[in-house]
Design goal:
Jelly Rolls, 1 helix, alpha+beta, four-stranded antiparallel sheet
């Protein structure tokens, strides 16, 4: 009787250990933030930034915008560099008001990008655009 219970306990314990190890390996291999850059916009209606990642194989972008807008704006990210085909471009509309924790995620496989922040006629003060490159 004791031997059977002990075997069951050891079996359950081994399965739990394997499950935990599997989760840890999966979390590490799923890729995280490789690099990040923050751009600040002050006293401008149009701001353009050029950003070249150091990683050779980006997969996704995570964009966070913080600050307050008096009017609507649009954030555009487009591919930088010479290409012979179609250029990549992503646009994210921003409504007037507080941009508290405004997050966007998109697929992105290019190392160079041009970030353009354009308002609908008002001047922007202290708006931060944070770009995280994910693998």
């Amino acid at each position: 009787m004791k031997s059977k219970k002990l075997k069951r306990i050891l079996y359950v314990f081994a399965v739990l250990i394997m499950l935990i190890l599997g989760i840890v390996v999966w979390m590490q291999s799923s890729g995280g933030v490789v690099e990040e850059q923050t751009f600040t916009i002050n006293n401008k209606q149009l701001a353009t930034f050029v950003y070249n990642t150091k990683t050779e194989t980006p997969q996704r972008l995570h964009i966070t915008v913080k600050g307050t807008l008096d009017c609507d704006a649009i954030l555009t990210i487009r591919e930088d560099g010479e290409t012979s085909g179609i250029r990549s471009r992503r646009s994210f509309p921003l409504k007037a008001g507080e941009l508290k924790d405004r997050d966007f995620q998109t697929m992105w496989t290019h190392t160079g990008m041009i970030i353009e922040f354009k308002t609908d006629g008002c001047t922007v003060n202290d708006v931060k655009v944070k770009i995280e490159v994910l693998e």
